[in-house]
Amino acid sequence: MTDQEKKTIREVYLSLPVSPEDLDSLKLGDAVYLNGLVFTGREGVYSRIFEKNIEPPIDIRELGGATFHCSPAISETSPGVYNVPSVTATASFRFAKYMPEFLKRYGIRIVIGKGGMALDIYKQAFRPNGTIYLTTVGYGLGAIYGRGILGVKDVIWKEELGFAQAMWILEVENFGPFLVECDAQGESLFEKANAEINTKFLKLYEGLPQLALKRLGEVCNPDTEVF
Amino acid sequence: MIKSETILKTARELNIKAAIEGPKDVRQKVANMEKEETHHLSKYVLGKILENYDAAIKDRRPMCADTGLPRYYAKVGNHASIEGGMVTLEKLLRQATAETTASIPLRPNRVHPFSRKDYNNNVGIHAPTVDYSFEPDADWLDITVVHKGGLFGGDYRMLFPADGIPGLKRFYLDSLAEYFRRGMSCQPAVIGVGVGGTKDVCVRLSKEAACLRVVGDRNPDPEIAKLEEELIELGNQSGFGPMGFPGNSAVLDVHIEVAYAHTGGMPVGIQHFCYAQRRMSARISSNDKVEYREDPMWFTPYYRRDTIE
Ligand code: SF4
Question: For the domain bounded by B4-21+63-149+278-293, which CATH number is listed?
C-alpha cells in the first residue's frame, strides 16, 4: 500500500461565521462539519439578483457567509412550518459566472455545492476574496445531510420561485461531511484527482478506432472536462 | 378485476419504498466495493454512501433529496382487467406521485421547460412518464417506480457497423470521461447501454437497461453477456472512483439491451444510473393481492422476442 492509500480523512467542526484562520487551517480533502446558518441559492436566486437586478428583501450579508447550491426536499406541513428531511447539492459549475460578484457583494466565505468549479474561478474569485469551496460527498447523501438540519429560519422568494428554487435559510448543527475541494490558496482537489487518473485512463483508448461519424464541436480529448 | 383503490395504495407504497430504501442488490454491491477499495478518498465516500442508506431507512427519510424524475413502468398482463381501464390507471399513478411528493416528502422537481412553472407535486405535461409493455398468459399488473436523477450521464451517438464493438467501447469510455469526472454521474453507477433500433428506441432501451435490471443480472445472449462483463472491467480499470477520485469502484454493473437496427447503422444510447438507485416493483394479481419485490422483471423472454409471436 502506498502512503497515499494509507491516508485517512481528517474531520473538522466549524462554527459559522468562520474566521480567516479557520479557513487557512483547512487542507484539501478534509471533511468539514458546520454549525450555524446556511442559505441556499441556485438558478432562480442568481437570475433574480444578477439578471433582474432584484436585491433580496433581507440583508444576506448578515447570514454568516455560507451559501449552498441546492434545493432541499421540503414540505410545508402547516403555513410557515416546514419539514426538511433530506437535502442534496446541485452541480455548481453552472453558477460559476455569478461567483466573482456574488462572493464579493455578500461577503461569502464558504460555497457548498456539488463537484466544484474550474480552477481559474478559484484563482480569480475565491482566493482573492478569502473564500473556500466545500463539496458535498457522494453526492446523494440526502438523509445524512437532512440529519444536520435543525429547521428553516426563513425563506425568501418562495412564491416567486417555488420550493425548489427559493432561498432557504437553514439552521444547521454538525451539518456535513463536506470535503474541502478549494482551499484558501485556491487549489483544487478535483484537479489533482483528474491529473492522477488521466495517465491510467488514456491508456484504455489504445487500439480503439476513431468513430466514423464525428460530432460538430467534438474538439476535446478525453483528458479534458466538458464544462 | 384489479381495484383502483389497490392500484393507488400500491403506487403510493412503491414511491415511498423506492425513495427511502431502494433495492438491496445495489446496497450490497456498494458494500462489497467499499471493502475492496484501497484509495482513501474513494473508500471514505463509499463508506458515507453506506451510512446514508442506513440513515434513510432508520429515519424514514429520502436517501437523496434530488428526487430526479419520478416515473412508472407498467407491465400489463394480456388478460388483466383494471377497474376504470387504462385511463384510470394513468390517473391513479399521477395521483400517487402528487400525494407522495407531499407525504414523503419528495422534492418537487418538475417544471415547465420554458416558464419554469412548478406545481410543487411532480406532475405536469408528460410527467410522470408511464411506459407500458404487455405479457401473454397473465392477468396481473406489474408496476415499477423509478426515481432517477435527470441531468448527467445520458448520451446518444449514431455509430456504424464499421465502428463495431471497438467503436462502442470508445463511446462508452467517452461517457465515463464526460460524466465520471467530479462524480457528475454520482457513481458508482449502473450503466445501461441500448444498441440498435432507432434513435429513440436505443435511448429508451439504455434507460430501461440501467433502471430495470438487478445488479449481477446478465443478458441471456452469451455474446452480449460477455460484452457486459468486458465493459464492467473496462469501467473499473478506468481509474475513476466515486466523485471522480482515484479508485477502482465506479461501475456497479453494465446492462446491454439490443433492438434490430437499420442495416447501415448501429445507434447507441448510454445511461448512467447513480447509486441512489430508487426503484421498486409490485405485482397486483387479479384477486387484488399485492406482492412487493425488488426485481422489476421487465425484460421477459416475450419482451425480448425476435419472432412474430
Ligand atoms: S445523480 Fe442520483 S445520487 Fe446524485 S444527486 Fe442525482 S439523484 Fe442524487
Answer: 3.30.1330
